[in-house]
């Protein structure tokens, strides 16, 4: 998979050299390039922002550096796909006003050959950039959650990790992708390791025996209860109410 990230803080993306994502890059599974938006500003101060029309607080990112940066990403990246004329990336713009980023979206994006991320800062990017980009490539505006970050960089770190770990070969033990939160709409069950007793707290008895059926049932029950307690919005209302009532009875 090819990934391009455009930011005014390229150093913010340094963690993408570490751990499993760094290894995936070294193994050739991920081809990731970070671009400095300021390289596409032409004045002495490498200006990428200006005051908002209509007034208001803060600064807005200028359209011209963005169009040049994205033209550059497309031109440079197209040569990495020989034979596929007019190939373009899907452009992802992280922002608190976007569609919620979910595991399903991560899965869908993991199927794509090429993604580009545009990290906004300040009060955002001039709206015309979205129109301009939308005429050239698919554009998705995605939010990490209902809170405001200082810019898109942290969101890109999270999104790239969520997407890249789904690529074949990135995670050594592919089974660990199957039994995890959000895979089937339920949160993950609690896990324990040795010792069997720690700080006066025992590991649930059922996990110590070898009854695999009983263990599977216990884990499923735990997942339903956890989901009802922490994320009732993920369960159908009747199931959530029943699971909560069951919890209160204990
Ligand atoms: N940029 C600023 N806030 C954000 C959020 N909640 N999600 C994604 N990108 C953002």
Short description:
The protein folds into 2 domains: 2-164, Alpha/beta knot; 181-249, Trp Operon Repressor, Chain A (Orthogonal Bundle).
Main features:
single chain, 250 residues, alpha/beta, Alpha/beta knot, Trp Operon Repressor, Chain A, 2 domains, 5-stranded parallel β-sheet, two-stranded antiparallel sheet, 7 helices, 16% strand, elongated, binds adenine, acyltransferase activity, transferring groups other than amino-acyl groups, cytoplasm, tRNA (guanine(37)-N1)-methyltransferase activity, transferase, S-adenosyl-L-methionine
Q: What does the model show?
A:
With 250 residues, the chain is of the alpha/beta class. It folds into 2 domains: 2-164, SPOUT methyltransferase, trefoil knot domain (Alpha/beta knot, 3-Layer(aba) Sandwich); 181-249, Trp Operon Repressor, Chain A, CATH 1.10.1270.20. Helices cover 34% and strands 16% of the residues. The protein contains 7 helices and 9 strands. It has helices at residues 19-26, 63-78, 103-110, 127-134, 153-164, 212-230, 237-249; strands at residues 2-7, 31-36, 49-50, 60-61, 90-100, 114-118, 139-143, 197-198, 201-202. The chain has a 5-stranded parallel sheet. A two-stranded antiparallel sheet has the order 3-4. A two-stranded antiparallel ribbon has the order 8-9. Helix 3 packs across helix 5 (153-164) and helix 6 (212-230) crosses helix 7. The longest helix is centred in the last third of the chain and has 19 residues, at 212-230. The radius of gyration is 23 Å and the shape is elongated. The model has no long low-confidence stretch (mean pLDDT 94). Adenine is lined by residues 94-96, 143-145, 147-149, 151-152, 155. Adenine binds next to strand 5. This is tRNA (guanine-N(1)-)-methyltransferase. Homodimer. One of its GO terms (cellular component) is cytosol. One of its GO terms (molecular function) is acyltransferase activity, transferring groups other than amino-acyl groups. It comes from Knoellia subterranea KCTC 19937.
């Amino acid at each position: 998979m090819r990934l391009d990230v455009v930011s005014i803080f390229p150093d913010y993306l340094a963690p993408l050299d570490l751990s499993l994502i760094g290894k995936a890059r070294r193994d050739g599974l991920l081809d990731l390039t970070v671009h400095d938006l300021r390289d596409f500003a032409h004045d002495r101060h490498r200006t990428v922002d200006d005051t908002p029309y209509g007034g208001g607080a803060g600064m807005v990112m200028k359209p011209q550096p963005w169009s040049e940066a994205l033209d550059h990403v497309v031109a440079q990246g197209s040569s990495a796909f020989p034979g596929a004329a007019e190939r373009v990336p899907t452009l992802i713009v992280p922002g608190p006003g976007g569609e919620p980023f979910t595991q399903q979206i991560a899965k869908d994006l993991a199927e794509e050959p090429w993604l580009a991320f545009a990290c906004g800062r300040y009060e955002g990017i001039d709206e015309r950039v979205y129109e301009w980009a939308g005429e050239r490539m698919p554009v998705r505006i995605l939010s990490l959650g209902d809170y405001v970050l200082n810019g898109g960089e942290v969101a890109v770190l999270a999104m790239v990790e969520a997407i890249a770990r789904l690529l074949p070969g990135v995670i050594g033990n592919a089974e660990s992708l199957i039994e995890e939160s959000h895979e089937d709409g339920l949160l993950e069950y609690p896990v324990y390791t040795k010792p069997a007793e720690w700080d006066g707290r025992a590991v649930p008895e059922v996990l110590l025996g070898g009854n695999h059926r009983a263990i599977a049932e216990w884990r499923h029950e735990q997942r339903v209860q956890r989901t009802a307690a922490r994320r009732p919005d993920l369960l159908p209302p009747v199931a959530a109410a029943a699971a909560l009532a069951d919890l209160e009875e204990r």
